[in-house]
Specification:
The complex is a heterodimer of chains A (117) and B (113). Chain A is mostly beta strands and 117 residues long. Chain A has no helices and eleven strands. Chain A is globular, with a radius of gyration of 13 Å. In chain B, strands 2, 4, 5, 9, 10 and 11 form a six-stranded mixed beta sheet that branches. In chain B, a hairpin with a 3-residue loop joins strand 6 and strand 7. The chains are: A mainly beta (117), B mainly beta (113). At the A-B interface, strand 5, strand 9 and strand 10 of A face strand 4, strand 5 and strand 10 of B.
């Protein structure tokens, strides 16, 4: 149980294009999902908290118009990197928390590696 | 601001030995702690968690110890195996309404043959 998937697992795109990353909770309902960014050899940095049916809450320094988050259902959240630039290249990871059980544990997806050329 | 930190960035142990990974936290309001294992190119994998009303919790080959007096958390891995080689992160949840996690910097565990 508690499986979270991400798609795609990796993507290469040209500068200026937009990229959408999907995060799905496969066997539980996630009222809250989180999006993280991770650079090589570094820890996870929280970008935003995504609540089903409401606007995401972004961490300080994260541009909400740059990183669009949609959490339209209890099992799906999407992160769209708009007008991507090389500095947006990174490992993006989502996590989800089981809203029905009330457990606090966050379960993570396998991550999406983005390379912007 | 509040932060969670790790004492050692790297740890090498012989296969079969026990491993101890340490973590210090500074937020006295933290009440829930999790250890994650992250292998290269993958997302973090849940290992074990502990609430602040406990000081020890055991899982399969792993034990988490919590010392609230000195704000210290440790992960013990018994009979370390090559498959345990990974980066280990501690994370804590404080008093934010969304219960976000704050991650430590990570410890790279290398298991030597």
């Amino acid at each position: 149980g508690a499986v979270v998937s991400q798609h795609p697992s990796w993507v290469i795109c040209k500068s200026g294009t937009s990229v959408k990353i999907e995060c799905r909770s496969l066997d539980f309902q996630a009222t809250t999902m989180f999006w993280y960014r991770q650079f090589p050899k570094q820890s996870l940095m929280l970008m935003a908290t995504s609540n089903e049916g409401s606007k995401a809450t972004y961490e300080q320094g994260v541009e909400k118009d740059k990183f669009l988050i949609n959490h339209a259902s209890l099992t799906l959240s999407t992160l769209t990197v708009t007008s991507a630039h090389p500095e947006d290249s990174s490992f993006y990871i989502c996590s989800a928390r089981d809203g029905v059980s009330g457990k606090e544990t966050q379960y993570f997806g396998p991550g999406t590696r983005l390379l912007v050329l | 601001g509040e932060s969670v930190g790790l004492h050692l960035p790297t740890l090498s142990v012989q296969e079969g030995d026990n491993s101890i990974i340490n973590c210090a936290y500074s937020n006295s309001a933290s009440d829930y702690f999790i250890w994650y294992k992250q292998e290269s190119g993958k997302g973090p994998q849940f290992i074990i968690d502990i609430r602040s009303n406990m000081d020890k919790r055991q899982g399969q080959r792993v034990t988490v110890l919590l010392n609230k007096t000195v704000k210290h958390l440790s992960l013990q891995i018994a009979a370390t195996q090559p498959g345990d080689s990974a980066v280990y992160f501690c994370a804590e949840t404080g008093e934010t309404s969304a219960r976000q996690l704050t991650f430590g910097s990570g410890t790279q565990l290398t298991v030597l043959p």
